Prior knowledge:
CATH 3.30.1330.50, five-stranded mixed sheet, globular, binds magnesium ion
Amino acid sequence: xxxxxxxxxxxxxxxxxxxxxxxxxxxxxxxxxxxxxxxxxxxxxxxxxxxxxxxxxxxxxxxxxxxxxxxxxxxxxxxxxxxxxxxxxxxxxxxxxxxxxxxxxxxxxxxxxxxxxxxxxxxxxxxxxxxxxxxxxxxxxxxxxxxxxxxxxxxxxxx
Length: 159
Ligand code: MG
């Protein structure tokens, strides 16, 4: 068994779509970034890469590369899962927590978890998406950013 940890944060600004786990959440602001800034996919990608000791998404998909401008981070997550599998691991489970003051994410969490489950070809119940506010503290609490913590557990194939 190998565990991995991922964290990411992106600024919330007007004029961008809010995409979390490949799901577009209706809101007046969205996340700023070179890609679609899907902070949930980024944190999960780093948790998976970390568990396999394969570096981080910044190394594999540099934000200086025009190829990744406005790209779908869900696609990058698929590529990461492929790297992890090629390295000889199976994904056991993924757990996440999104920190956002607004919008309320309770009714979108299941679709995010289902979307990630589907694109990674995992069984139902292997991906968990939780959400919390930051009680008005710091950048996430003031609604200036959305942050995500993620952990992933891998198993060596055949074990
Ligand atoms: Mg990011």
